[in-house]
Amino acid sequence: MTMEQQERRRSFGFAVPALIWTCAFFVVPFLVMLVLSLAHLEGRQIVQDFDLGNYVKIFTEPSLFKGIVVSLEITVTVTILSVLLAWPLAWIIATQVPERYQRLAIMLAVLPFWTSYVVRSYAWALVLGQNGVLMQGLIGIGILDEPIQIMATRAATVIGFVHFFVMLLTLTIYSNLIQLSPNYARAAADLGANGWNTFRLVILPLTLPGIMTGAFLTFVLCIGDYITPQILGGNNELSMPQLIMLQLGRRGDFPMASALSVVLMVIVTLAYAASARWLKMERV
Amino acid sequence: MRMLGWLYMAAIFVFIFLPVIVLVLFSFQDSRLPVPPFDGPTLKWYGQVLADRGMMEALRNSLAVAIISAAVALLLGFFAAQGLARVKLPGSILMRGLLIAPMTVSYLIIALGLLTVFNNLGFRPSLWTTGIGHVVINLPLCFAILFAAMGDHQKNAERAARDLGASDLQVLFLVTAPMLKPALLAAFFLSVTFSWDEFIIAFLLTRFDVTLPVEIWSMLRSGLSPATNAIGSLVFLVSIVILILLELTVFRKSKT
Questions:
Q1: A43, part of any domain
Q2: Residues B84, A264: C-beta atoms closer than 8 Å
Q3: Chain A within 8 Å of B17 (Cβ-Cβ)?
Q4: DSSP conformation class of A40
Q5: Is residue B32 a part of any domain in this protein?
Q6: What residues in A contact B6, CB-CB < 8 Å?
Q7: How far is CA B190 from CA A70, A271, B85, B145, in A?
Q8: How far apart are CA B233 and CA A122, in angstroms?
Q9: B37 in Cβ contact with B96 (< 8 Å)
Q10: Count of domains forming chain B
Q11: What CATH number is associated with residue A276?
Q12: Which of A144, B102, B168, B195 could form a disulfide with B134 if both were Cys (CB 3.0 to 4.6 A apart)?
């Protein structure tokens, strides 16, 4: 054996434990789920008959199909709103805040990130409830006469999500913005672009990698999250993760839960394929 | 224009901090409901939470799971990064992809897959099964951070050490690890916080001994209470302390 072959074999040896772990506890469970999604429940018995019954049901039964629609609507709304709110904030921090305070400003902007995820949703329930701070405040200053219902609606879910993802996106867009040389904007101005055109034709395209990386992360985390819609959105309309948990809890319908999970994964994969050419995952 | 910018920043900061302020403020609420008007301050809810046996046990469970699973993820990730960064192997891109893949899959799906497999094998849900799940989600993170941190100057130092007769493990722990200390610490602390805060895997893969987020979840189901605010504020405080430690140790040093 040559030196090089020896070194290769040794290197590969180092990667083996992690590969085994990932195969045993990630790939195998996924394959098991894939097979299980082709089974169905009879009474409490799982019958493995390798048919597409669950998938047909997901796309034909309104209560299940609506979960896909609800999840997609919420996720797209959240992603767009978060980008629209985060970009200006990242830009202001990167260009208006003096350089030595920027690190502090960014740390502050993402500080609530470090509250527990469950607790953060609960805190929004406190803010948005009928007797909560927001309603009492709005009534107090005379904007509202009586509280309006936000809790247990989609609006509450969206607010809770946007809060989380504005922080995430501010971070990814900011780290993109500070890598841009101010010379780009200067050059655009020298060549006669006004402020709007500089933004639209120069700065915005240059921050696309940051936007798309953040937007993809938002999409993935948002569409797969059970906690926020469950605590804030209530049970009026169910997102896909809520449907999956419902299958597990009420009937122990693992095959249907698996099929829903596979559909969820396919949606995420499609989102990845759509945004792949902008993603710079290695920078995150 | 500049004025408008500051106003916008102030407005977003209000939005970002509103729930945290409400959370912490009403943990000092005197009456039974954490809604206005504020009638505190009192520390009785903190007293109640700290005296709550179930809560404190959940806290210890969470810490144990977080530290052990982060350590395992770090070790596996470190070895893998070392193996795949040092030489070009056939299929190394594929192996890298495999190791990163769990990052793009929802925690719920990872939890469901593990639950299905453990059910089939007859493993009872426990803190151990939860820990396994947490290693699955943190391994890609550790691997990615460490892989990105490994550079050419490390390679040369490692080669020198081997030429001088060091064994593989000696090289790894006496040469590589010290050079990568900031990245190792960052990966470890990030993994600890992710595991510490993780809910859905712990919810599906524990039964009697639960972690803190699961305990808080069951507390939520009995309605709003300042006690929930108190435990939430405590958890936040712990995270902030970890964050400040990280800032002072890892990032301060990496700058100099």
A1: no
A2: no
A3: yes
A4: E
A5: no
A6: 92, 96
A7: 32, 26, 22, 10
A8: 12
A9: no
A10: 1
A11: 1.10.3720.10
A12: B195
Q: How far apart are CA B47 and CA B193, in angstroms?
A: 25
Q: Within 13 A of B233's CA, how many CA atoms are on the CB side? A: 21
Q: Which amino acid is at B204?
A: L
Q: Please judge whether A163 and B16 are an interchain contact, meaning their C-beta atoms are less than 8 angstroms apart.
A: yes
Query: Alpha-carbon torsion B131, B185, B194, B49, what sign?
Result: positive
Identify whether B102 is preceded by a cis peptide bond (ω within 30 of 0): no
Selection from B12, B123, B127, B111 nearest residue B64 by Cα: B127
Q: Which of A26, A117, A125 sits opposite B199 (nearest CB)?
A: A117
In total, how many domains does chain A have? 1
For residue A27, being part of any structural domain is answered with no
Peptide bond into A112 cis (omega under 30): no
Contact B107, B68 (CB under 8 A): no
Say which of A13, A22, A36 has its CB closest to residue B99.
Answer: A22
Judging contacts by C-beta atoms under 8 Å, the chain B residues touching residue A125 are 224
Q: The domain containing residue B123 runs over which residues?
A: 60-255
Contact (Cβ atoms closer than 8 angstroms) between residue A279 and residue A209:
yes
Collapsing DSSP to helix, strand or coil, B181 comes out as: helix
Would you state the structure tokens that stand for residue B117, as one six-digit string?
A: 């497999």
Which residues, in sequence order, are CB contacts of B160 under 8 Å at separation 6+? none
List, for residues B163-199, the tens digit of each pLDDT value: 888 888 888 888 888 888 888 988 998 899 899 999 9
Q: Which residues contact A16 (CB under 8 A, 6 or more apart)?
A: B83
Closest to B228 in 3D by CA, of A162, A194, A116: A116
Q: With CA atoms as reference, report the closest residue to B140 among A227, A175, A26.
A: A26
Cβ within 8 Å of residue B39, ≥6 positions away? B29, B30, B31
> Could you tell me if residue B157 is inside a domain?
yes
pLDDT tens sequence across A204-261:
888 888 898 889 989 999 999 999 999 999 888 999 999 999 999 877 899 999 999 9
The predicted complex's ipTM stands at: 0.90
Q: Is residue B121 part of a domain?
A: yes
* Helix B92-100, helix B53-86: angle, nearest 10: 170
Q: What is the pLDDT of residue B40?
A: 75
User: At A45, which helix (H) or strand (E)?
Assistant: strand A45-47
Determine, for residues B204 and A248 on separate chains, whether the beta-carbon distance falls below 8 Å.
yes
Q: CA-to-CA distance for A128 and B15, rounded, in angstroms? A: 12
For B19, which of A16, A33, A127 is closest by C-beta distance? A127
Least Cα separation, residue A210 to chain B (angstroms): 17
pLDDT, one tens digit per residue, over A51-86 is 899 999 999 999 999 999 999 999 999 999 999 999
Q: What is the CATH number for B206?
A: 1.10.3720.10
Residues A143-184 pLDDT 10s: 888 888 999 999 999 999 999 999 999 998 998 888 887 788
